[in-house]
Amino acid sequence: MSPDTPASPDTALCHALLPTAGSGSRAGTALPKQYQPLLGRPLVQHTLAALRAVPGLQRVLVVLAPDDAHWTDVPGVDALRCGGATRAESVFNGLEALRAAGVPDTDWVLVHDAARCLVTPDEVNALIDACRGDAVGGLLALPLPDTLKAEAGGRVQQTIAREHKWLAQTPQMFRLGELHAALAAARAGGFAGITDEASAIERSGRQPRLVEGRASNFKVTYPHDFTLAEAILRSRS
Ligand SMILES: Nc1ccn([C@@H]2O[C@H](COP(=O)(O)OP(=O)(O)OP(=O)(O)O)[C@@H](O)[C@H]2O)c(=O)n1
Ligand SMILES: C[C@](O)(CO)[C@H](O)COP(=O)(O)O
């Protein structure tokens, strides 16, 4: 391509995939954590409200556990009961469903965590803007703010330089075909070591782009996270 030739615009569509089949065992709640009420609405409804407010998203697909007894349909959201035993398997099954529905492999998929209910539409837009022109895709992430220790037997083994270390968040945005192929390759090994979409893409030899997000986009994981999440939601409403 000559330097004068304008790059062709990326007209591929963006789809959101929300794996929601986890047990939330670390949350210590009677209900699965994605249904725990925050300001009177199930946690996952806050996540969905943020995703549905992103104009650039063509569709939102939720992947539920096959035996989920708590889900209630949400207008504009497709839900499939194809969740798996791990997050990676739930994502893989969701990607299979998108492909079976005829979504082209060149379209983008933004995979988010149901448990990251504080994501904002502008953070998702920033990811889309940064990744649309990227050959690989990328993820929201946070530069490590604290000193990092490696542990052995409950004691510090060493201090690890925090420069160039980031905490991976979601959404993570990749081409449907490339993410599907990367997860398919990891499937034979039971998705071992695949804790996010980027780790699957990295195994296929590529380097996802890091897009700086905000600390407020944390994953509700432990009991005290609900209090913090509710306080942040209240401060926004
Ligand atoms: N088999 C699984 C496991 C996790 N997830 C989803 O992956 C996201 C991130 O996982 P996390 O919330 O940390 O995992 P959980 O399994 O829900 O929680 P825990 O590890 O505490 O049991 C969540 O939206 C969760 O619903 C999923 O779809 N399928
Ligand atoms: C995808 C993720 O949220 C990125 O930080 C994280 O890896 C999910 O991990 P979990 O083991 O399912 O909590």
TrEMBL record:
Positions MEP for the nucleophilic attack (site feature) positions: R162, K219
Which Pfam family is an annotated match for this chain, by its short name?
IspD
Listed A to Z, the keywords are: Isoprene biosynthesis, Nucleotidyltransferase, Transferase
Show the Gene3D superfamilies listed in the entry. Spore Coat Polysaccharide Biosynthesis Protein SpsA, Chain A
Read off the SUPFAM superfamilies from this record. Answer: Nucleotide-diphospho-sugar transferases
- Annotated positions for site Transition state stabilizer: R26, K33
As one GO molecular function, the record gives: 2-C-methyl-D-erythritol 4-phosphate cytidylyltransferase activity
Q: Does the keyword Nucleotidyltransferase apply?
A: yes
Tell me the protein family, please: Belongs to the IspD/TarI cytidylyltransferase family. IspD subfamily.
> What is the role of the protein in this entry?
Catalyzes the formation of 4-diphosphocytidyl-2-C-methyl-D-erythritol from CTP and 2-C-methyl-D-erythritol 4-phosphate (MEP).
> Per its record, how is this protein called by name?
2-C-methyl-D-erythritol 4-phosphate cytidylyltransferase
Annotated source species: Hydrogenophaga crocea
Name of the coding gene: ispD
